[in-house]
């Protein structure tokens, strides 16, 4: 393998920081131009629909330079600490907000279910794949959220896609925030109805569209409660008011809100006290509850319709018993050990204050998603590599996941990070941010 690309010492004394950053970016782009590297024409011998695959070079170029950030193999994990390529690192790339993924009681519940039921259901929920564990979890979710019913699906992606696809009829209109999760986009795209996308968290733009389609009877506003890349919180009180004013239903994706905010971690709808105004509550098990799967909770008639109409539910194998049992145990722990949520909020406040003090712009909220915007894609990939070299395993988002020149290091935090972990993260970002001219010297 080619030795990882490393900048020389010629940039060490550049000042001011923005000039230093500009020169570093220029040097990096001589080696790796992220925006254009995948645009090379394919070989003339490659034709047809697959030709584009053979002309796509960005991943291999990034790998040659040692700045490819994806598909790292985690060999060991202990809370927020991982081993990757034999190297120990603090993970700030996890959504395991409450530390339940490796919690002994959760693991034991999964093990018991594994021994009793085996590793899979070998069929869909619609036919042979509904075990008593699935029904137990659905009842407990309904009780926890104070709703009539719930349906458990194999992934959060399918929960969104399947629900939207079967509800959004040919004459209906969905109003979707432009930063909603890809699963919402997919659900809207396969549904026969129309979707309009309003500017991110822009209530004036949402109202403009609601007015435009005021004569349409079937309207639904769909939004993430917490946006997974930015960590922004949706303006649910305003959305609920607009929905009432214009006769629209409301669907909220609480994937990153569940276990983070609200009473007992019930989500942002609980935090804003608008739970009764939300028609469809979507959540996942792959964040705070530490497993995999998704669910929809709503009135019984809505859930019954989804059970019999959602293709993503009907034609997918059921969630494995061990995963379901683990979620049941995790939900019980989340409800009965509120100190986990309290620690998560304390850690979030501490890390955000640290980033803000060193010059990074961060959201002033209690969401443990803390994106560090770098801007230039090549510089972002390089900084991410340096962080890993320094023992910090972080996520990275580049276009088209985020807009061009809005690349970011996406960090997220848990209740099991301790202050030593957080201080190590802050120290690495401070040193590397200064080295690359991203933040000024103190």
Descriptive notes:
The chain is an alpha/beta fold and 442 residues long. The protein folds into two domains: 24-40 and 61-97 and 339-435, Aspartate Aminotransferase, domain 1 (Alpha-Beta Complex); 104-336, Type I PLP-dependent aspartate aminotransferase-like (Major domain) (Aspartate Aminotransferase, domain 2, 3-Layer(aba) Sandwich). It is 42% helix and 16% strand. It has helices spanning 17-31, 34-37, 51-54, 58-65, 104-117, 132-145, 156-167, 182-190, 203-212, 236-246, 268-271, 300-309, 311-314, 321-336, 339-358, 377-389, 419-435; strands at 74-78, 81-84, 87-92, 149-153, 173-177, 194-198, 219-224, 249-253, 280-284, 294-298, 369-375, 392-397, 407-412. The strands form two sheets. Strands 4-10-9-8-7-5-6 form a seven-stranded mixed β-sheet, sandwiched between helices. A six-stranded mixed β-sheet has the order 1-2-3-12-13-11. The longest helix has 20 residues, at 339-358. The mean pLDDT is 92.
Q: Could you outline the blueprint of secondary structure elements for this entry?
A:
Layout: H1 17-31, H2 34-37, H3 51-54, H4 58-65, E1 74-78, E2 81-84, E3 87-92, H5 104-117, H6 132-145, E4 149-153, H7 156-167, E5 173-177, H8 182-190, E6 194-198, H9 203-212, E7 219-224, H10 236-246, E8 249-253, H11 268-271, E9 280-284, E10 294-298, H12 300-309, H13 311-314, H14 321-336, H15 339-358, E11 369-375, H16 377-389, E12 392-397, E13 407-412, H17 419-435
Parallel strand pairs: 3-12, 5-6, 5-7, 7-8, 8-9
Antiparallel strand pairs: 1-2, 2-3, 4-10, 9-10, 11-13, 12-13
Helix pairs in contact: 5-14, 6-14, 7-8, 9-10, 15-17
């Amino acid at each position: 393998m080619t030795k990882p690309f490393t900048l020389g010492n010629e940039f060490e004394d550049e000042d001011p920081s923005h000039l230093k950053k500009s020169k570093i970016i220029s040097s990096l782009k001589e080696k790796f131009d992220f925006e254009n590297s995948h645009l090379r024409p394919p070989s003339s011998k490659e034709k047809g629909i697959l030709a584009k695959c053979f002309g796509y070079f960005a991943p291999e170029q990034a790998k040659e330079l040692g700045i490819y950030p994806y598909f790292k193999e985690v060999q060991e994990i202990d809370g927020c600490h991982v081993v990757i390529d034999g190297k120990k690192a603090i993970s700030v790339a996890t959504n395991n907000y409450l530390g339940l993924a490796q919690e002994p009681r959760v693991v034991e519940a999964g093990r018991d279910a594994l021994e009793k039921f085996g590793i899979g259901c070998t069929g869909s929920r619609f036919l042979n794949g509904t075990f008593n564990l699935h029904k137990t979890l659905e009842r407990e979710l309904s009780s926890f959220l104070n709703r009539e019913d719930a349906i458990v699906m194999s992934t959060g992606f399918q929960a969104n896609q399947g629900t939207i696809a079967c509800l959004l009829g040919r004459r209906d209109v969905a109003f979707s925030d432009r930063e909603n999760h890809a699963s919402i986009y997919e659900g809207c795209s396969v549904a026969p109805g129309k979707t309009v996308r309003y500017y991110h968290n822009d209530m004036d733009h949402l109202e403009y569209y609601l007015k435009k389609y005021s004569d349409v009877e079937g309207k639904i506003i769909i939004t993430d409660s917490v946006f997974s890349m930015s960590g922004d919180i949706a303006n649910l009180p305003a959305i609920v008011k607009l929905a009432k004013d214009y006769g629209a239903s409301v669907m909220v994706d609480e994937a990153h809100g569940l276990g983070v905010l609200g009473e007992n971690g019930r989500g942002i709808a609980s935090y804003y006290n608008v739970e009764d105004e939300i028609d469809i509550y979507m959540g996942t098990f792959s964040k705070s509850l530490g497993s995999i799967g998704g669910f929809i909770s709503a009135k019984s008639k809505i859930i019954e319709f989804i059970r019999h109409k959602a293709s993503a539910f009907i034609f997918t194998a059921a969630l494995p018993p061990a995963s379901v049992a683990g979620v049941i145990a995790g939900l019980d722990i989340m409800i009965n050990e509120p100190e986990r949520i309290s620690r998560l909020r304390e850690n979030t406040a501490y890390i955000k204050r640290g980033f803000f003090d060193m010059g990074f712009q961060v959201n002033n909220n209690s969401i443990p998603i803390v994106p560090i915007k770098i801007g230039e894609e090549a510089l972002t990939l390089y900084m991410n590599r340096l962080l890993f070299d320094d023992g910090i395993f972080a996520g990275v988002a580049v276009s088209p996941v985020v807009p061009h020149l809005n690349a970011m290091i996406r960090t997220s935090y848990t209740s099991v990070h301790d202050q030593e972990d957080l201080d190590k993260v802050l120290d690495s970002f401070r040193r590397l941010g200064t080295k690359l001219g991203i933040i000024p010297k103190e």
